[in-house]
Design goal:
This protein has one domain: Phosphatase 2c, domain 1 (4-Layer Sandwich). Helices cover about 35% and strands about 30% of the residues. It contains seven helices and eleven strands. The strands form two sheets. Strands 2, 3, 4, 5, 6 and 9 form a six-stranded antiparallel sheet that branches. A five-stranded antiparallel sheet has the order 1-11-10-7-8. Strand 7 and strand 8 form a beta hairpin. Helix 1 runs antiparallel to helix 2. The termini are close together.
Length: about 240
């Protein structure tokens, strides 16, 4: 049996953009959590992230009600959102791609199933360690992973914001990888758009996890920190706190 209770905080800010293309889901009843960062211009980006935020939780709940394997349910929900966004994009007159990142976490049966497509990360803070559970699907990060450039070079590469994998990407052939983990009391899971993760360091996450026991206050603090440090993007995060009973 779980030795923790779940508390959730979430916050999003438009920042210096003319509109907010980020969407979030923070449902403490179904234990479904999501951040989606839309792209493709105002209408297209908002529509793509909105589709992800609507479809993924609904498909997850349907699949779990049918007693599907949780990991496969996460993959199926992401795949269905991807298909819907591609179909919607084909009806758009705009030449710009319509798409969205998505990072999803599902807690069920004392396990958390995490999956991400794009560069909106999931980060687990446990004690004094911070671990990113998802891959960033940018060209720069792919080059760093295969050793073509260094991780430091990837941070300033002109390819650092170019995604090769996202929901709505017609060339995406692989589905989402699901990473399960067993949560422990004291854990903090942060799902974020890159408007936050590109500015808040792992050290600041490690410190904030103990400074802000209230996940809502911490979510608001993290978003404001990213804005104060110069983020010009929409900034969004969901904080899932696994507190001791």
């Amino acid at each position: 049996m779980a030795e923790f209770v779940i508390h959730v905080g979430s916050y999003t800010a438009q920042g210096k953009r003319s509109n907010n293309e980020d969407r979030l889901v923070a449902d403490p009843k179904t234990h479904v959590f999501l951040v989606a960062d839309g792209m493709g211009g105002q209408d297209s980006g908002e529509r793509a992230s909105g589709l992800a935020a609507d479809i993924i939780p609904r498909v997850l709940n349907d699949r779990l009600a049918a007693h599907d394997d949780p990991g496969k349910a996460v993959q199926a929900a992401i795949a269905e959102a991807h298909k819907a966004i591609i179909q919607e994009g084909q009806q758009q007159s705009s030449t710009r791609r319509m798409g969205t990142t998505a990072v999803v976490a599902l807690e069920t049966q004392d396990q958390v199933y995490v999956a991400g497509v794009g560069d909106s990360p999931a980060m687990l803070i446990r004690g004094d360690k911070v671990e990113q559970l998802t891959l960033d699907h940018t060209v720069a990060d792919a080059l760093a992973r295969n050793g073509t450039i260094t991780p430091e070079q990837a941070k300033t590469s002109p390819w650092r914001n170019v995604l090769y994998k996202f929901l709505g990407c017609a060339e995406m052939t692989e589905g989402a990888e699901v990473r399960p983990f067993a949560p422990k009391a004291g854990d903090r899971l942060v799902l974020a758009s890159d408007g936050l993760s590109g500015y808040v360091t792992h050290e600041e996450l490690r410190q904030g996890a103990t400074q802000f026991p209230d996940p809502q206050k911490w979510a608001e603090h993290l978003v404001q920190m990213a804005l104060d440090k110069g983020s010009k993007d929409n900034v969004t995060c969901v904080v899932v706190a696994f507190d001791a009973e």
